[in-house]
């Protein structure tokens, strides 16, 4: 009995010793819902917002746009429309017919079909099935009459073919090349095989001059600009332009030993744009001509300019016109002045400009023996806003 009591006492002492060495509650591992010290949290990056644009532009520098680039843009736009419709509503697609206009090589239809299918696979990843019966000629006897048909001629045939190919819609494509002026027209029609209703139809066009890709059923972006411009005209909201010019001018003299007068030229012009394409600018120019040793004067003139080239974001916009005003240098040195001037806006603000004017000759003072006036060239640069 004594031996058993000793063993029990030793076991109790060992249990108390193990409990004293166990970690306290403050040293326990953190629960699962707490972040350990030194840990970092990385937020998952948000996916970029995909803009579902309804209209697009095909803009390239230069005066010409390659027809292949325009066609690729059209096919990609159509494929993007299919992706928006969704594969569960459209795919598989039964390709019935691809046609080109009479002024194009008929063999180009096969090339167009291949490029169309490739565009659909890239953008929408949909199954496109070739319809062999749609091009075939069928002959049969009906009520003792020999009947010849080509392609799909009855609703029952359409449903039978769609069931055979497991297709939901039938696609018809037509590409037309216009030559006066040169432009492309791409028309598509998608017919639901179950009830022969047209579920999607659209026409895609490429503008011959601006290379603007638009739809026949949607507004062109430039039309929205025209609409805003028309609203501004109706509401009598003008469009003003401001510009400051710096440069140098030469005023010829007659009978003076130092020759012509070289002077610094600075001007401010305030103008309003008008015309069908806002290609005209009319306004007032206030300028100063300074030569500290020989002459100082101010020039006030009315200015009229016209844009020479069609407006283009890649091209330099050039204007040509003239002005008529009056140069004031003092009690005697006042004379009319007429200028032919031109300027080019390089991008949006910086402008290179030059003018050639005729200053009616005048005497610089009552006692003077020389006259000032003649052909007056001027050149410089400016800033437009």
From TrEMBL:
Residues 1-20 form the signal peptide. Residues 22-41 are annotated as: Disordered. The keyword Signal applies. Keywords: Signal. This is Uncharacterized protein. It comes from Archangium lansingense. The lineage of its organism: Bacteria, Pseudomonadati, Myxococcota, Myxococcia, Myxococcales.
């Amino acid at each position: 009995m004594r031996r058993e009591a000793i063993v029990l006492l030793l076991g109790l002492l060992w249990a108390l010793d193990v409990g004293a060495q166990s970690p306290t509650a403050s040293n326990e591992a953190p629960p699962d819902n707490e972040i350990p010290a030194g840990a970092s949290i990385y937020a998952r990056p948000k996916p970029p917002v995909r803009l579902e644009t309804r209209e697009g532009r095909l803009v390239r520098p230069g005066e010409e746009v390659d027809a292949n680039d325009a066609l690729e843009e059209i096919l990609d736009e159509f494929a993007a429309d299919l992706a928006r419709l969704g594969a569960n509503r459209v795919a598989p697609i039964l390709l019935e017919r691809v046609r080109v206009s009479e002024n194009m090589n008929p063999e180009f239809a096969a090339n167009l079909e291949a490029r169309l299918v490739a565009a659909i696979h890239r953008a929408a990843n949909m199954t496109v099935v070739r319809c062999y019966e749609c091009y075939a000629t069928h002959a049969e006897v009906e009520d003792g009459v020999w009947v010849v048909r080509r392609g799909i001629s009855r609703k029952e045939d359409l449903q039978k073919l769609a069931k055979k190919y497991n297709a939901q819609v039938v696609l018809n494509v037509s590409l037309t090349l216009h030559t006066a002026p040169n432009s492309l027209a791409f028309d598509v029609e998608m017919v639901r095989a179950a009830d022969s209703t047209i579920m999607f139809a659209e026409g895609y066009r490429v503008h011959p001059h601006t290379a603007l890709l638009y739809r026949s059923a949607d507004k062109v972006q430039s039309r929205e600009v025209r609409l805003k411009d028309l609203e501004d005209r109706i509401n009598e909201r003008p469009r003003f332009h401001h510009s400051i010019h710096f440069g140098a001018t030469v005023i010829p003299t007659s009978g003076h030993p130092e020759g012509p007068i070289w002077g610094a030229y600075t001007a401010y012009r305030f103008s309003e744009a008008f015309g069908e394409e806002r290609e005209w600018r009319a306004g007032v120019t206030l300028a100063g001509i300074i030569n500290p040793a020989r002459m100082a004067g101010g020039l006030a003139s009315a200015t009229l300019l016209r844009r020479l080239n069609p407006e283009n974001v890649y091209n330099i916009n050039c204007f040509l016109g003239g002005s008529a005003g009056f140069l004031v240098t003092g009690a005697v040195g006042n004379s009319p002045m007429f200028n032919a001037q031109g300027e080019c806006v390089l991008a949006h603000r910086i402008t290179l400009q030059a003018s050639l004017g005729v200053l009616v000759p005048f005497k610089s003072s009552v006692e003077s023996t020389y006259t000032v006036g003649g052909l007056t060239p001027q050149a410089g640069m400016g800033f437009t806003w």
